[in-house]
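ok so heres the complex, two chains, lmk if somethin looks off
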Amino acid sequence: MQPKDLQAVQFAAYPAQARQTAVAHLDLFRQLPLSFLPSMLREISDYDFKFPAERAFIDGELACLSRLSPAEISDWFQAFSGISISPKLAEFDWVNQPAQFVEQQSAYLWSTHQLDNFRKAATEYGERLQATRPPEHLPLRRLGIVVIGQDVADYSAPLFRNLRPHGTTFTQVKAENGLAQLLDSVQSRARSVPEPYAHWYIDGGAISGNIDPSVTCLSYHGLQPVRSALLSFMQQQIQRPGMGPEELRTRLAQMSPADLGMDPAEDPVLSRFQVKLLTEGSGTQIFSTTFAQWATREALRRAQALTLMVNFAPRQRQLPMNEMLSNQNPNPSLDPLGSLIDADMGAYYHWINQQRLPGAQESAFVAWFQGHALALVIGPTLPRGVQSSSTTSLAELVQLALA
Amino acid sequence: MMEDAALNPFDPALGLSRTRRDFLRDAAHLTVGGAFLGASPLMRAESARKKRKIIVITFGGGARDQETFAPEGQENIPHLLSELIPQSSFFTHVTNQGILGHYVATASLTTGTYETLNNFSAVPPEHPTIFEYFRKDLHRPASDAWVVAPSNGFNRIGESDCRSYGQGLGAAVILPKHLLTAASSGSSRDFDHLLRDNYENPLYTPPLGGSEFELRQLDQVLRLSVDDFTAHARTLSSPDELSVYIAKRLMQQEAPSLLWITMHDIDIAHSGAYSLYIDGIRRTDRLCLELWKAVEANPEYAGNTTMFILPDFGRDSDYDAGGNGFQHHRTGDIASRTTWMIALGAGVRQGMVFDSPMQSVDLVPSLGAIMGFHPVQSSGHPIQELL
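and the predicted structre for the whole thing:
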């Protein structure tokens, strides 16, 4: 089926708000090329479970495209129209299974050497769309906080090497009560601008103490029952004759919070987000450091968090993969040193992902080697690539980053 | 999109081109090769060709410049850098324009053509492999070409289904993990850490039936008893260590003229643990030297062997919003497509760095020119700096 043949009834299986959004833009969809439209439907079909920032993005994109004349649409999507789609793919139910279509389309683009053209078309489209958007005024300057190195007493190799050229390294940080000070700064910002999903705390271990409800919290430990249910499901699927990687990915992508035993009364947007972290993320089910890094990336990319603090905890030591996937050891041996190296890279990726969001020039970032006197601070007024031996607290460093 | 150029000094394309030329000169005091310097010592008389042995090692699966030969990564490859590079020609700019899956990319390396087969299926390459060209054109026996492959999914890589080549003309493929499974006769619990088949998804790739052939390989080819083999396996810590052990045994017992070894430990990066990815690179660095030392210590190989070491491809850049940095190789960006190659040993100009771009499919035609076979269906071109 081609987009020009679309009918409203084909969106009947979409959740309510997604269906309403799709049907309202049917005329637009009919003008878009098949190489592009399923990617857009993948986002729209999940509209009911999207974060506010994602909904605003979809609404803005649809509004922008709806204002274009047919000639302008043809111009905007010329490069996508040049991408061929196999007849088999065109026959696929891309309205109801857009994510699976996109996955198969990706394989097709690789095999037909069209991936580079597709990337170019997508990049140009994104830039064109971005240029139509009014500048975004944030209610708070964005702040990222990373805590690494839990349970590491000594480490002599340099940390934050990738970040140092972009900020100031502090070597005389007062470590006492540092974690609490950082959490206080997150909660204070959340209380001052209590927007939903704007302020996050992600813990690679367990969250201790009470956190202000205006902060969105998730932890590797807190999701243990969900991870166990997912690993059991994966084990069952792996045993099934004929199961292949694509089939397994499709089944994982279709899982809902209820399938993994999550409480249906809980926040459906956050529950769906957590399920996706575990079903779409690679390694998030077995390594807490991977979970923390990926959750941070996704919270920034999708929710566009104004404040995001992540506390990395030691992951389990590497074991044979099937042993880790079988999840039979409730108290696995931990690897604090390896986790420190994982988290150091995770801190760098946190900053990179933060810099992709609006307001990057004004954003602030603090990374701390937990329990030690070393921290790295990036802010618009702080010098880059220098070191400071001033004695200072973590709370003061946050203020410096935001100065 | 990054908003502020001042905060984003990392245009990956610029970074790559800058660091490629500066890759090694400071660290290893090598000479940058330019336009050519006369005939290579690789091109020798026919008699020398007959004794020539070639070993190809894929530094797999998927390593980026910044964790290997770029200045910030050189600490991870001390053996390549200080012991192998000074006696090598180093090619700084190798691109892979094909599909970035490990089996399909390795198949493309062996055929010199960008294959399009399903990465997760045990199917043969569509085009003739180097092993078929080598054996058919040079009338070599089956025992002269071997592949040591990392996973069951690679069991068809030895020969294509091309009608004019194909069956009976390819390389024998030895799958160390399958061998170990057969040798441990089902009680493989002790060897779980050596049997992990791939890191890209939680499924074990195609289970292979039967064990008689593997046990015959063990006995008749490697001349190892089951007890000796399993006892040695217990001393190893990773699948690539097992592969190198098998490769060295093969060199001692069969001394093949064409030996292809595919490493895979580095692909643990898919789990997202950066430290384990780095551990994999450091282990592979050590194993490459171990293999070279085995070459130098073996009279069948010493002095007449040329070894090629190259990653099958890179991994995604830290700065491509479509990826997650080192974890995967899915974006098809420059960092994931651009890598390097080392050539060392017999006939190779020592201490040279070549910046001119080449493609990974150029390897097979280059080996054809060196060995005297004709990879007629390859889309690559011989690397002039090797000729």
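quick notes: The longest helix of chain B spans residues 274-297. thats all i got rn
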